[in-house]
Amino acid sequence: MEQELRVHSQKEKRAYLIKNIIKGLAMFALLIGTFIIAGKTIDAERFAWLQPFFGRVTLIISIFIASEGLSGLLPPEIFIIWALQDGTFLHFMFKVLFLSLISYAAGFLLYTVGRNLRNNQKFRAIKLKFFSKYDKLFREYGGFLIIVAALSPLPFGIICLMGGASAYNRKKYLRYSLWRVARFIIYGVILWHIDELRYV
């Protein structure tokens, strides 16, 4: 039996957005704090053997693509920190923008998959078994949930998939999901300036 869905007011939607953004900022602050403390307390030479791995750009980007394509298995902030390794601010922001566009494209791919398979019985069974929570959220909040997922720890890829499965308007989806790019850029700027604290 299908659950009765609530109709949320604009005030409730804003509260939901703020709550999830706060969660995202808390996770980001924890990650940054760990990054700064590690930079000050851990001997870099002990981890020099990892440098060749971090220097393999194609491999790192491939891992990021796989993560975003599988609904964000790894926090994107990890890859933003990786992009900080060297170079100027412009070079760093170019890499962050590149990562954000990959995430945006992966989200659209999942949206398209959901839209094309929405009437497939096997897909509907998988959705009911594994993604019923997010399907219910999308049916309650609609496109607003795309913005929330783009800016918060909510699984962006799964929300995009549910958006497609709900046959959500494509133009609106593409517009709302641009907040994903904004999140990367904002976090990148913050991280660049916070990184200076490691040397204080």
Task: Outline the structure in words.
It contains 11 helices and no strands. The N and C termini lie far apart (59 Å). The model has no long low-confidence stretch (mean pLDDT 84). Helix content is 73%, strand content 0%. It has helices spanning 10-41, 51-54, 57-69, 76-82, 89-117, 121-130, 132-141, 144-151, 156-165, 170-176, 179-194. α8 (144-151) packs antiparallel against α9. The chain is mainly α.
Entry keywords:
mainly alpha, 0% strand, globular
Please summarize what this structure is:
This protein has helices spanning 10-41, 51-54, 57-69, 76-82, 89-117, 121-130, 132-141, 144-151, 156-165, 170-176, 179-194. With 200 residues, it is an all-alpha fold.
Sequence-ordered SSE layout with sheet pairings:
Blueprint: H1 10-41, H2 51-54, H3 57-69, H4 76-82, H5 89-117, H6 121-130, H7 132-141, H8 144-151, H9 156-165, H10 170-176, H11 179-194
Helix pairs in contact: 1-8, 3-5, 4-11, 5-9, 5-11, 8-9, 8-11
Order of helices and strands: HHHHHHHHHHH
- By DSSP (H or I, 4+ residues per run), the number of helices equals 11
**Regions with little confidence, pLDDT below 50 for 5+ residues:** none
Percent helix: over 70%
Q: Would you report the number of β strands?
A: 0
**Which structural class fits the helix and strand makeup?**
mainly alpha
